[in-house]
Hints:
By secondary structure, this protein is an alpha+beta fold. The chain has helices spanning about 1-20, 135-200, 210-220, 230-270, and strands spanning about 25-30, 35, 40-50, 55-60, 60-70, 70-75, 80-85, 90-95, 105-110, 115-125.
Amino acid sequence: xxxxxxxxxxxxxxxxxxxxxxxxxxxxxxxxxxxxxxxxxxxxxxxxxxxxxxxxxxxxxxxxxxxxxxxxxxxxxxxxxxxxxxxxxxxxxxxxxxxxxxxxxxxxxxxxxxxxxxxxxxxxxxxxxxxxxxxxxxxxxxxxxxxxxxxxxxxxxxxxxxxxxxxxxxxxxxxxxxxxxxxxxxxxxxxxxxxxxxxxxxxxxxxxxxxxxxxxxxxxxxxxxxxxxxxxxxxxxxxxxxxxxxxxxxxxxxxxxxxxxxxxxxxxxxxx
Length: 272
């Protein structure tokens, strides 16, 4: 009942003011667009010239607050006001408490007997920076698991790549070592014939005493070999006599030479 009586009183006051003489009062600066969070407050300012009689605030084409020179007419406790006077203007502030998403819309400030008005827009958000519905918890968990699996896969691939690189390097090193060994062996094989030539030819005709003894023992005995010592023993006096004859001849020649030298000396002495 109190709310209905207040509405009726507001309408009567507005009608009474409208019947009063008009003037050229005007709005200097209207309200600005505002974006607020749910359950917070929204503030709108409207600056007008002095001498005004009636000022009204509307939200979505509905009067929520009226101001007269005698005082405000409040129809809802969610809508309050504040006013500020200056030397050449009057500022009226509309305060909307406990803002809800349903309050989003057009906010207007208008004066009695004035064709002009100031307009702004009210936007209400559930949270800061909200652009759409939030992801559910299960979706967030699924994304976290997928990201973890992707990270593990990347780590495994890096490990496999490092192992492949290490094995390939070992193979290359082993191949290089084998090549070095082959080249060293080839050089050694080439140097062996030269070493043999420098060391001299091998005497294939030489045989040790043991080999000769073994060969002699393997031969069958012969009768001719028994007579060999006798022949050798019989030839020894002949060889000795021959050497004695040679020595005698040499002594004779030597004596003759000495005698001839003596004769020559005597002849030389006689001639002197």
